[in-house]
Amino acid sequence: MSNFETRELADFLRSAFAAQLIDAMPEPAVLVAADDRVAAANAPALRLLPGVRVGDPLILALRAPDIVDALRRVMASGETETVHWSERVPVERLFDVTAAALPTSAGNVVATLLTLRDLTELRRAERMRVDFVANASHELRTPLASLLGFIETLQGSAREDASARDRFLHIMREQGRRMARLIEDLLSLSRIEQKEHVRPEDVVDLAQTVRSVVDSLSPMAADLGVELTVNAAQPVLVLGDRDELVRVAENLIENAIKYGVRTDAENGQLVAIAVSATEKNATLSVRDHGHGIAPEHLPRLTERFYRIDAVQSRAKNGTGLGLAIVKHILTRHRGKLTVTSRLNQGACFVASVPLHVSKNHKLQ
Length: 364
Fold this sequence. Notes:
Elements: H1 3-13, H2 16-23, E1 29-33, E2 38-41, H3 43-48, H4 65-77, E3 81-87, E4 93-103, E5 109-118, H5 120-155, H6 162-194, E6 202-205, H7 206-223, E7 227-231, E8 237-240, H8 242-259, E9 270-277, E10 281-288, H9 310-315, H10 322-332, E11 336-341, E12 347-354, H11 357-363
Parallel strand pairs: 7-9
Antiparallel strand pairs: 1-2, 1-5, 3-4, 4-5, 6-8, 9-10, 10-12, 11-12
């Protein structure tokens, strides 16, 4: 190819048509000319690399030696390369970066196309899966080992000891129930995740649902000396799955009864529950007056098996999955969970879901 043709192709690389071709690509893409300057970049690339400027050297916007070295090797050899690139600021992200040569008919590389594939969510999901399996195995291993140990004891030295047998059988029953609760929560979480993309379409009165949950949990609250107050008199209609919304209310209210009370402060044994409606959303708020939650715990409360106090949680038959289930149910309902808390001033959990607007208007 002549020098004239090479210059003509170089001009084409910086043309509006070439920019439109790059912009049509769904993944971040940057076209780099033979002089290492950016010839074109699409919108996803500009969002990812805001420092990229057409006409400027790529190295000014992308300070990644592995990518720059791969770019130069590809320009020299004409062979496609893929390298890994991790970015840790402002948040950790991982990419596969492919550098593909664009040669002329004579084999001269006049440009390189960089495409970036974001692996962050894939890696995060894989890490969550591994952590989930490890945590679930650990949670089941402890009560299972306890059961096996007591069974072996009952078959051996405690075979004729009636008092030991009764005591061990009571513990075994509790450990069996713990495993059953854990398995049920795991299955519930799996079922919710499978249909998380399908939004529920039934009309549900959130206020009536919450009142029924409060009625069912009142005996537990009374046994623990906890007073429940409810403000949910008016119908509040939402599009939802009633069983799942019952699960949300049960988990939030039960958590407040078990963990959100204290005996050394005024109102320490009070849990306030309210259902209300804003212009677009229905909200369920559960306010306790317990010890509160330290700020470092708040972002992680909905993680699977995350516990602020693991010993206390297990002692009160917690599985560590309740708030994770709440989060996934609300995600399916296109809602969200908000938690506010200050140490020694209690915590407030607010679940919000979109209103069923037409039905609520008719009730007003």
